[in-house]
């Protein structure tokens, strides 16, 4: 199976299983928020932060209680499986879902054949 076939397969799974969470306001679109900072090299040139939102195909999941250690993974954290992303999602970046903003606590990309097909994230409400 080629890398593109794996990407399409993973995206199909996320799309199919995402439907169990409902449509519309129960399952609002999910976005990767990329912040860019320019300037900020002097008091006369303060930093300007711009935000750009990229749509992603994602499914939120619960985290097994046995994995909650109170340090890295805390009560209330969620799992997030992401496919069809335009930008690399990095630790501490934001994920927006409806009115809620989460930040990425950790990530575990799935890279068979050297091509990232899915990103498995742990996210926490900001």
Mean pLDDT over the full residue set:
80
Structural class: mainly beta
Helix content: 10-25%
Distance between the termini: 39 Å
Please tell me about this protein's structure.
By secondary structure, the chain is mainly β. It contains 1 helix and 6 strands; from the N terminus they run αββββββ. It has a 6-stranded antiparallel β-barrel with strand order 1-2-3-6-5-4. It is globular and about 50 Å long.
Search tags:
126 residues, mainly beta, 6-stranded antiparallel beta barrel, 13% helix
Describe the structure in brief.
The protein has 126 residues and is mainly beta. It has one helix at 3-18, and strands at residues 30-38, 48-61, 78-83, 94-97, 100-110, 118-125.
How does the SSE layout of this entry go?
Blueprint: H1 3-18, E1 30-38, E2 48-61, E3 78-83, E4 94-97, E5 100-110, E6 118-125
Antiparallel strand pairs: 1-2, 1-4, 2-3, 3-6, 4-5, 5-6
């Amino acid at each position: 199976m080629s890398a593109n076939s794996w990407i399409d397969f993973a995206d199909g799974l996320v799309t199919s299983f995402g439907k169990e969470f409902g449509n519309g306001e129960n399952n609002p679109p999910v976005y990767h928020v990329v912040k860019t900072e320019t300037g900020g090299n002097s008091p006369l040139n303060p930093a300007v932060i711009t935000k750009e939102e990229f749509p992603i195909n994602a499914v939120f999941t619960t985290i097994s209680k046995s994995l909650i250690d109170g340090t890295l993974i805390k009560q209330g954290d969620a799992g997030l499986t992401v496919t069809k992303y335009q930008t690399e999602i990095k630790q501490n970046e934001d994920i927006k879902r409806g009115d809620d903003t989460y930040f990425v606590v950790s990530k575990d990309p799935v890279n068979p054949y050297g091509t990232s097909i899915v990103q498995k994230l742990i996210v926490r409400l900001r």
